[in-house]
């Protein structure tokens, strides 16, 4: 009986992890890489490669890349990414999980501040976009391929 | 079965005539010598069934300082006793206490048998059927807390004591029995709290008021689970909790008792939660005086409580006075209770965020204080017309008031004065050996004068009837009903018939099978109907159209005791099904999610199973464990009912040897699976919650013997939430963190 009590108590103590914690990681992260599959000679003119970001939209179809980012309906890489590498790593912090990210793209700023377009879409199946159910404290690894000869459909309202 | 004992005389082979002559001479000499030579007494205490020695039993000569404890062989020895005729008291936590008149010889030897108490420390209850009856005859599940077990948990915190009862959750004075209550801002209790049968429910908020009665004056607390409206009317949807007070306070005519405690909240593990460089304290001091003389007894008690709390802006302090007078006149027993409590506290509602769980939301006015007063006068009278006819009358008033220190023009200003007057007249008659009849009438009048609720009145008039029939020796059946009518201020009326059926079958002496079906209801509290109040970002609006909540409760249970095996045990299991309709819940009614209205919006069912097992592992060691499973379904949405856990597990290990007691207890409640999602817009991190795992550790030591005192002096060390486990007891509210309390209990009784 004493052994049973001891086992019971030990189990109970192990099962309690201290409970709520203010320092728990409450963010989530989308990490991964953009892969340019086109040869370099198929890249657009240098003066149109002004900025490169990964943008994750909560809604689909999104209204506008800039507007959705500003209104909190989209997350984006906080610094510009490089066009010079064939594989470009990135990380986006999702600050209010759980959330469903319905549309994730690599976006090119090709002109003025408001001139953005999607150049690659995250999907598992070639024909559909792939949403991600983002949960607190988790990290999601994705890959977005960019084919300059096959720019995806632009669902934006501009 | 009575305890047996026998004197073990030495065997002499002698002629009986000569023996008698010698005996007379020796007896005479003994009487003469009794003033000169002390007596000694030794013996052995054995368990009646197993004949095994009882270790750690207290053996004491009544009204003297002579005594001993039994050793590992169950033996004791008391020497230098200066009286020949004594009363010997034998007590042990796990056995029925006994007293025996002993005529001592110079060296007496005794062999005494004790009967295992097997956990049921109180054999009779008064709540389940509104009459005194054996707890085993009850048709509902009943849990009884006796004073000893309460005092080991806490001298002051009634909420903490109730939290250890299987199937009972309690937080911020809100009680939930088997999932009956969720998160309702503390309004409209679905469980009836009684003090000696008189309700402690406020007239305005309809909420229960705990901690009004000094725990040392409580004889027992009876928790009757399941709908009890057939006898008790409104609010008895989930169950009835009756605090039964002591009527005899002391063996001495005049007695007093001083209880004092100082507790320390240990600093939180996380820097973000530390809101003060100093540790926060909780202090209690209580002084009681009682006078007992034949048919008269009285007690007066005063208490001061101060709690700095484990959260910023959650401190409180109060003064409490309590008095009771009891007397008997021939066949009439009269008892009166007068109590008052004045409280000054901060107005904590919910946290700032999980990162700042011990802080109120930004912008909270930390200078706002909430003041409240609670007073009760209650008189009960029992007149025995004969052994078979009893008339009981109860008359009482429960006055509550609260206000905050804001200006009356402030939108957050709140105040209310409420008086609930109560009258009950009951006749209990043993019509024949097989029929017991209980009938009575009841009147409750709730008057409210409030800035928040307006000038309101609510009356409840009721009549009830119950018959207990014993068709044959092993079966008890009950049938009864109560008819309640609510009369509102505009003379509109609503009525409710609450029937009840039950049985208790005893196939063998230690096996009881019980079953019951009954209806429960609750009239909306005045605050739920007429609240027009703002606090900390929320606005509550009135809904005069609220109607009764109703429930049907079905239960089947079994209780089995076995005291004849190696490890005596008591096992209880009950399956229950509760169906609720028109439950009143707060819900948001505006798009900004700041305005709340109480509405009859929820139909629900709660299926469940409750088991408990008490094991007498060793005469000094008792293991108690209970598990409650709830399946609470919101029938309106077919989802789990909000703010409910599904699994509860309580376990405690009690150890007592001589003057030392210790208890380690553990309480578990599974994760609350669903909350009101809309709360996340008002309360930051509202979704943050985890299962509950709380360990408590209690030590108690009576210093009387080692200090050679005539009186009791008990020191206690209690550690609440031993491992400082952090969880929420409701949305945005961190539960009490670790509190270590040292208390002293001195009794001149």
Sequence of secondary-structure elements of chain A: HEEHEEEEEEE
How many discrete structural domains of chain B? Answer: 3
- Ends apart, CA distance between termini of chain B: 31 Å
Can you tell me the CATH superfamily of the largest domain in chain B? Answer: TonB-dependent receptor, beta-barrel domain
Judged by helices, strands and strand pairing, the structural class of chain A is mainly beta
Oligomer: heterodimer
The helix content of chain B is: under 10%
What's the topology here?
The complex is a heterodimer of chains A (158) and B (749).
Chain A: H1 2-15, E1 28-36, E2 51-57, H2 65-70, E3 74-76, E4 87-94, E5 99-101, E6 103-109, E7 116-121, E8 132-134, E9 139-146
Parallel strand pairs in A: 1-9
Antiparallel strand pairs in A: 1-4, 2-3, 2-6, 5-8, 6-7
Chain B: E1 5-7, H1 16-33, E2 39-47, E3 58-61, E4 67-69, E5 75-81, E6 85-92, E7 95-103, E8 107-114, E9 124-125, E10 133-134, E11 142-146, H2 147-153, H3 158-162, E12 168-171, E13 174-177, E14 191-195, E15 198-199, E16 218-225, H4 229-232, E17 239-245, E18 254-265, E19 280-293, E20 296-307, E21 316-329, E22 332-346, E23 369-386, E24 389-404, E25 415-432, E26 435-450, E27 454-472, E28 475-488, E29 493-508, E30 511-522, H5 526-530, E31 533-535, E32 538-541, E33 549-562, E34 569-588, E35 595-618, E36 621-634, E37 639-640, E38 647-657, E39 660-669, E40 692-702, E41 712-720, E42 728-730, E43 733-734, E44 739-748
Parallel strand pairs in B: 2-8, 14-17, 32-35
Antiparallel strand pairs in B: 1-8, 2-5, 3-4, 3-6, 6-7, 9-10, 11-16, 12-13, 14-15, 16-17, 18-19, 18-44, 19-20, 20-21, 21-22, 22-23, 23-24, 24-25, 25-26, 26-27, 27-28, 28-29, 29-30, 30-33, 31-32, 33-34, 34-35, 35-36, 36-37, 36-38, 38-39, 39-40, 40-41, 41-44, 42-43
